Amino acid sequence: MIKVLVVDDSAFMRKAIATMLEKDPQIQVVGSAKNGQEGLEMIKQFNPDVVTLDIEMPIMDGLTALRHIMMESPRPVLMVSSLTTEGAESTLKAMELGAVDFIPKQLSKVSLDIVKIESNLIEKVKAIATRKIRPLSLTRPVPISLPRPVYQRPAAGTPLSDRASLSAPRARVTHDVVAIGVSTGGPPAVQKILSALPKEFPASIVIAQHMPAAFTGPFAARLDGVSQLTVKEAENGDRLRAGHVYVAPGGKHMRLEQKITHVEIVITPEPAAALYKPSADVLVGSVANAVGKRGLSVILTGMGADGMLGVRDLKAKGGMALAQSDASCVVYGMPKAIVDEGLADKVVDIDDMAASIVEYLYK
Questions:
Q1: CATH assignment of 2-128?
Q2: Percentage of the chain lying above the pLDDT 90 cut
Q3: Cα 83 from Cα 285, distance rounded (Å)
Q4: Which one of 1, 32, 345, 352 has the fewest beta carbons within 10 angstroms of its own beta carbon?
């Protein structure tokens, strides 16, 4: 049995979440608390496998309670978030502090999608319940250095006029578009990568993170604040530039199109039937079509197999793929899919992913 503790100041939300979860015979809601302080006491009492945690609560709010959980007894925590800009800011802060994902407050509303919402909640709880949570360091990594020029010692008697031509140029970039696909547990993983990349990073980065529309703008702004690269929420018609990062807007797909002089971003609702918006399959597949062997895909933590079909297309065009390691994923689903298909050129711990990206730019 997976033991879950529900912490929320709304009695309606506590009941709604508990009712949904207990429809699965493998899940037991062992208790419910109406504020963070009561929640911490119940964690000691019941030792739950997973905690759902509201953000706005009296006596002790969710972020304060989360800090205590991660310091004293780390375990998977799902935040309960409103789908607003303010809710996004708080939720992203919570994920930086160690929460693995979030569920929407709209769970409490009557909806035609209630079956889908219940299924998603149960799937998330079951996926994260057995993962060991490693509190993330908030210390900004030291940026990685790019390969330096290598100089050839001139032979004795070489004329001075010929010596300058003997210095080898900086290693040639062979992959100038990096496509990242990521879902559950993604924001801290992406932040760890971008904060370690150098300002002179010689490629463009495009990101498909499974997120609601209200979250991707604040997510991009948060990344921009911790990275030496320029990060923005992508807009239709943006031209890819080296050292720039483009986050796909929630609820839409991002594609790349090769124009005569540049690569351009297209934001579109199609394919409307895609399970995820934005979709890593759509993004990486478009990278394959737009730049072919110049593309490098990076598949990070997340449920399901989104990204695998796109990576298959990219590999067929001569591109390359990195996968996050099982041990460093919150959920080893998306990376596992490309590893199991034999598509990963390298499996990498998240702490080493930035260095591996730089390494593979020159392969």
A1: 3.40.50.2300
A2: 77
A3: 29
A4: 1
